[in-house]
Every structure is written in structure tokens, then in C-alpha cells.
Amino acid sequence: MKRRPITTLIFILILLALSIWVNLSDTISITNPFTSTALFSRNVETRLGLDLRGGLQVLLEAPVGTTDADLQTTKTILEKRVNALGVSEVNMQVAPPNRIVAEFPGIDDPQEVVASVKQTGLLEFVDFGDVQLPEGTPIQTDYNNGKTATPHSDLDTPLENRIFHTVMTGSALQTVGVQPSTTGGYEVAFSLKSDYAVLFSDYTRDNVGKYLAIVLDGRVISAPKINSQISDGQGVITGNYTSESANSFAVQLRYGSLPVKIEIAESRQIGPTLGEESVRKSIIAGLIGLSVVILFMLIYYRLPGFIADLALITYALFSMALFKLIPVVLTLPGIAGFILSIGMAVDANILIFERMKEELRSGKPLRTAIDLGWQRAWPSIRDSNLATLITSSILFYFGNTFGASMVKGFAVTLALGVLVSLFTAIIVTRTYLHLVLDNLRSAEHPKWFGL
């Protein structure tokens, strides 16, 4: 072999070893051998979509006339809210003119997610004075009622008629986080934007010992007592918080307000049993398809077909590693796109081999036939794959614009598969052919080449 094919082969083998490592691992990490500290760590578990893993699908609807900007902002805030709850791999897509499609694969507590999504209104910090009301109590405030606040000392006023004063809204918050408290539990720490720090300092100075309620959508979610003046715009909210309840409360503070009010138009739960069955059938279908393709190439193209099968297995390992590294959330249509890309990878090999056979029939030496076969097949390979990439781009745009996540998944896996197949055809197949066939004489073994 020439120096260049040997160098290319070493490069392919390194990529192949890395791909096998990624495919066989759920977490990959690199550790400093001298200090035993982790230099790099990455979770590479295979991510399954809603139809394979089970979970919850929710259709959210905003008022008619909502602007695209407000709808996009709402989507972003909702994503942050559910991600902060620990719901991973959430997929939300805007579906114009006024809908958002939300998918939550593999969630353990759908009620918590639905409750978090439903909390879409106004977050307020409300002056309760000496009044302490339990969590969940509905109240009215002057901020969202446009009325004059009733004094808190007027205890004869029924609760349902009392109007409390809003000191500030959730827009005043700069950061919110959870930290251990000195008593061994947890507390919620917050900081205010500079514009509100002075306002809050004056208010807490004048209301030490009073209650400042935190109200979401007109319901009390917490009513801490003001223990001292907060002059620097930073404070903590203490209580009997566990790690989970403190984080949940922090999520409500951090992502409590949306630019528009949304309603849950439709929701449906997809059971994990259906997902497991879909995965099983998808694996069987993929193995059958791959086996048939491998057998066909071996029977029809003989020795070059065997080499193509090796390149095809290499292609599959590269693709799966890439899906795990990006990561790509696999759905049934996504797997279909991957299987389709396998067929396109085989198409490239078929074009190369047919051109190569034509050169061998014309009396060209084997090494020359390999190079000429690839060169003359390349324009067809390039054009067909380019057309598929354009189609994938159109499908991706359609799926992203109209909230069709299944179409989007199909487009992503098909496009990635096509790109990897191009690399396989240009680099891997050609290198394997030279590695095995350069020292053979086709005239002595015509049957090995299907001649």
C-alpha cells in the first residue's frame, strides 16, 4: 500500500475505536493519570423520544392574536421551568399561529409537570402586613385588579373582599438559587435587579416583623416574615424546605411569569409498554434490513461486496456514535430515517462497484479500476446525496415550523446518515478496497469480482 492509504487507514481505525467506546458506554470520561482528576466527562446514553420511551404530550394554546415573539418567549420560559424540575429531553415547538407542542419523554410524575405548565400567570410580592394566610389561599391584589388596596389592619373585611398591595412583581428578580441553611435544611436565596434594590430596602426597613407573601396566579405560594432590612438587594427565604421543595419553589420564583396566559388544550399519556414494544420492533426491523443488504452485497459483488459490508458496518458504528454524542433524540420516524440512509450508503457502493467492473472488463489493472470507478461514480453519488440533503432541510423546516417533531426527527437522522455515508464512500470504502485488492489480479480470479 502507498503511504497515504496507510495513514488514512490508521485514522479510520482510531475513529472506529472511539465509536465502539461511545456505543458501548453510557458515560465517557477522560482522567488525568497523575492527579486522578476528571479532564472530561460526558453522558452519552441513547436518548429515546416520546413514542419509544413513553411520557406525556401536551398541546398548549395561547390567546388568538398572540405575537410570534411572545409565543417564542413563552416557549423558552416553559422549557427552563420544566428543565429546572429535572425533566430532561423535553421537546417544545411553536406551532403557529398560537400553539406550543410540548413533549416530556420518560417523566416520573406527569402531574408535577402539568402543574408547572399550568402556572402561567403573574408572580407578585404582596404586602400582607400582620396577616398570615396558608399556601394556596386565593387573594386579590391592586396590581391585577386596578383598585385601591384595603389596609391590612382592617381585619373586619372578609378575605374574599380584601385587596392586598403588590410591592413588586417577578420581573424584579435577578437570580434565584437554593443553598443549605445554617439549621441543616435548605433556603432559597435571591438577588434583585438594581432598579428594585432601593425600593425593596425601604420597604423591608419599614416592615420588619411583617409578612411579605409571594403570590402566583392569584394564589399564595409562600408568606415569609421579614426578619430584617434587606439593603443590598440580596436575601434568603427560610422555612421547612427539603431539597426538592426548595428547588420547586425556586423554579416558581425564577420562571413564574409568562408574557401571555396559556391553556392546556389537550394532553395524553403514552405508556412505557408501547415504547418498549416499539423499540423491540424497531431493532428487529433494523437488523433484518441490515442483514438483507449485507447478504445481497456479498452474493452479487463477491469480494468487493464483502469489503462494502465491512464499510457498511463501519458506517453504522460511526452513525450511532454520532447520534449519542450530539445527542439525537431517537423516535420511530428517526430510526426509519437512519435505516433509509443505510440504503443510500449501499447505493454509493453499488455505483462505485459497477463503474469498477466496467473498467476491469475494459482491461484496466485492478488498482487503476478502483480509482477510475470511484472518480466516475462520484458525480452521481454527490448529486443524489445533495438532493436528499435538500429534501431533509425542507422536512426539518416544516417540522420545526409546524411543531411536527416526528418529521423533524426523521429529517435529522436522514441528513446525518447521508453525511456519514458520504464520508464512508469517499474515505472508508476506497481505503478498504485498496487495502484488500491492491495485491490481487482480477484476471486470475474473475468470479471473486462477479465478472
Q: How would the blueprint of this fold be written?
A:
Blueprint: H1 3-23, E1 27-31, E2 38-43, E3 47-48, H2 50-53, E4 55-61, H3 68-84, E5 91-95, E6 99-105, H4 110-118, E7 123-129, E8 140-141, H5 142-145, E9 163-169, E10 173-180, E11 186-192, H6 194-206, E12 211-216, E13 219-222, E14 234-241, H7 243-254, E15 263-270, H8 272-325, E16 329-330, H9 332-361, H10 366-402, H11 405-437
Parallel strand pairs: 3-16, 8-9
Antiparallel strand pairs: 1-2, 4-6, 4-15, 5-6, 7-9, 7-12, 10-11, 11-14, 12-13
Describe this structure in words.
With 451 residues, the protein is of the alpha+beta class. It folds into 3 domains: 3-32 and 271-449, Multidrug efflux transporter AcrB transmembrane domain (Multidrug efflux transporter AcrB transmembrane fold), CATH 1.20.1640.10; 55-118, Alpha-Beta Plaits (2-Layer Sandwich); 123-257, Gyrase A, domain 2 (2-Layer Sandwich). It is 52% helix and 20% strand. The protein has helices spanning 3-23, 50-53, 68-84, 110-118, 142-145, 194-206, 243-254, 272-325, 332-361, 366-402, 405-437, and strands at residues 27-31, 38-43, 47-48, 55-61, 91-95, 99-105, 123-129, 140-141, 163-169, 173-180, 186-192, 211-216, 219-222, 234-241, 263-270, 329-330. It has a 5-stranded mixed β-sheet with strand order 8-9-7-12-13. It has a 4-stranded antiparallel β-sheet with strand order 5-6-4-15. Strands 10-11-14 form a 3-stranded antiparallel β-sheet. A hairpin with a 3-residue loop joins strand 5 and strand 6 (99-105). Helix 1 packs antiparallel against helix 8 (272-325), helix 8 packs across helix 9 (332-361) and helix 8 packs across helix 11. The longest helix has 54 residues, at 272-325.
